[in-house]
């Protein structure tokens, strides 16, 4: 069975957001590096150079693109915001299905790569310069953009997870940062019994975060290899996943955590107002929170960060939520030139420094991760805490990578539906895991996959 027949139905999937940390809008672009696209958001510095079209949405992309164009006489970037995350993916899927209209280079979250790889929409850039920069990245982050010896994107940033907490609430209730999830629940009960706020939150719209917590407990939700695209292993009703689902369902049932969707106005108001004692999130969260107005008024200086609580303190596991990469599409007419852009855009020191200093990204390039300025940075949002050195860099270094399915969008939508049922008290954690397994297996089989 051919790859394209396997995914004939995948293009009809409704796209849902897996990460809502940034925002943007804009139009599309035409593939073809020599097409001289004219709908650029940015200024072309060298009008005689060939142009590569790029879709990307990070807030500081204007600076990043200008840095690249000012530094290159041989190629220029024409940048367009085709939407943030899910909106961009929907437009890209339309272009892939139509066989035209895709950019030369596209920003994708790493959990979306396989879904486009299986449609042969992305170029293997391993021999177009990617292998030359492999040494600049940790094994886990490089694995997230690779399939065997093939490399389908260049990492920009990641989301090593940790636990942000309110120092004032912890001090008020004499709580120390929990090192295990058992301690987390005990602390949550202590705060509730004393009449305090919710200890945390699990909104239905963060299925990618919960999936990372599955993996922290040793689960492997999907086993998939593009070299054998017809076969997939789906393991969603395992003891490891049921334990995690039962745990968070239990916190919800006991009233220890909230269930509001994250990234909403109401949720942010709650964070500002001390409605939650903790925020289990990723390294990009400080930038998202400050951008949303957190930590800039009465709540300034009240936040700190600690390592993610563990299931087994003696065997800690680091996991990742979010992060993006730049991929070359198969619609690019000059794939070598497009690869040069993908490899060079958001890879220079000026752009990477701007990214982490504005807290737009947590960079994965070792040149930054090992620099004294980044390592010893006293993060203003955390009251001067050296969060990179103490929390996020060790987590990023220890992250071993993830195997994503070819239908992450559908999987996330179905996990989100189960979380809604859990919040409503309609289903328990273990049953939700079993139901999810049945739904995803049935879907995979309907798409032509053999489920092992």
UniProtKB/TrEMBL annotation:
InterPro entries: Bact_solute-bd_prot1 (IPR050490), SBP (IPR006059). Residues 1-20 form the signal peptide. Keywords: Signal. The keyword Signal applies. The keyword Oxidoreductase does not apply. Pfam families: SBP_bac_8. It comes from the Bacteria. PANTHER family: ARABINOSE-BINDING PROTEIN-RELATED, BLR3389 PROTEIN. This is Sugar ABC transporter substrate-binding protein.
